[in-house]
Each structure stands twice: as C-alpha cells, then as structure tokens.
C-alpha cells in the first residue's frame, strides 16, 4: 500500500491537472491571429493529453486507497498551477509562453513525485509519472521551438 505522502502528492497532481486542463481550454477558445489554426489545434491536442493523464492519476490514486479531489474548489485550493482569468487579450505567443511555464511547473513537480514514489517503493506509480514526465518534457521542447527558443531557455 502506498504511503499517505504518495496519496497526497497524487491528489495535488489531480488538482493541478484539473486547473491546467481548464487553462488550456481558455487558450483554445481565445487564441487569435495568424497562428490561430495551428494553436487552436495544438491546445486541443494538449488538453486531450492532459485529460487522459488526469484520469489515469485519479484512478491510480483510487487504486492505492486514496480519494481524488473532484470539485473545482478542491482543484483551485490544491493546484500548484494558478488559474488566470482571461481579462485582457493575449497573443498566441503569450499563450504558448504561459503553457511552457505551466509545463515547467509540472515537470519539476513530476521529478519530485518520481523521487517520492521511488523512495516509497511504489514502482507502478513511479512508472506512470516517468511516462508522463517524458511527455511533458517533449511538449516543453515543442512549444519552446514554436517560440524560437531552445527547451532550456
């Protein structure tokens, strides 16, 4: 059985993915400009990917005896990513930069979770997190390339 610390980590990850999923929809709905068709599609692809992982993490948490957060208030209270209401127009590039910033927060947190689950001997959860971190790192590279930057900038 997983430790309480692993369950708490996974629950906070559920909350974070819930907030990130909503932010990606916001970008998808509000993107404008010459990159509209590309970014509209890419934001949709990314929120579909996040939704799949969101579900996998919540189901893993249930599997190891936890109870995933399931309300918007819980997501906002426990997410490490902050929501940002769309109150002023943003360029597609600014939206992509926000996505990269959020992906970096996720990547750093996934690294912590990989270490935590390794220390707890929870190989299955660790494998899930390693796989997702691989995806997040690739997304960072691709969105940074869109911005004309290297993945480490």
What this model shows, in words?
Helix content is 75%, strand content 0%. It has 153 residues and is an all-alpha fold. It contains five helices and no strands. 35% of the residues are buried. It is globular. The mean pLDDT is 96. Helix 4 (92-119) packs antiparallel against helix 5 (123-146).
Quick tags:
single chain, 153 residues, mainly alpha
Q: Class by helix and strand content?
A: mainly alpha
What is the H/E order? HHHHH
pLDDT under 50 segments (min length 5)?
none
Rounded mean pLDDT is 96
Distance N to C terminus? 40 Å
How large, in whole angstroms, is the Cα Rg? 16 Å
Main beta-sheet annotation? none
Strand content: under 5%
Question: What is this entry, summarized?
Answer:
The protein has 153 residues and is mainly alpha-helical. It is built from 5 helices and no strands.
Please specify the SSE layout and strand pairing.
Layout: H1 4-30, H2 36-63, H3 72-78, H4 92-119, H5 123-146
Helix pairs in contact: 1-2, 1-3, 1-4, 2-5, 4-5
């Amino acid at each position: 059985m997983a430790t309480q610390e692993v369950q708490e980590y996974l629950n906070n990850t559920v909350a974070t993915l819930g907030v990130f999923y909503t932010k990606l929809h916001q970008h998808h709905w509000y993107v404008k400009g010459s990159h509209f068709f590309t970014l509209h599609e890419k934001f949709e692809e990314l929120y579909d990917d996040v939704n799949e992982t969101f579900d996998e993490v919540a189901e893993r948490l249930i599997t190891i005896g936890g109870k995933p957060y399931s309300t918007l208030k819980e997501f906002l209270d426990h997410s490490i990513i902050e929501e940002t209401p769309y109150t002023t127009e943003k360029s597609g590039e600014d939206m992509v930069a926000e996505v990269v910033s959020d992906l970096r927060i996720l990547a750093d947190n996934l690294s912590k979770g990989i270490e935590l689950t390794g220390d707890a001997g929870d190989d299955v959860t660790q494998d899930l997190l390693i796989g997702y971190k691989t995806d997040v790192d690739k997304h960072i590279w691709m969105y940074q390339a869109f911005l004309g930057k290297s993945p480490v900038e």
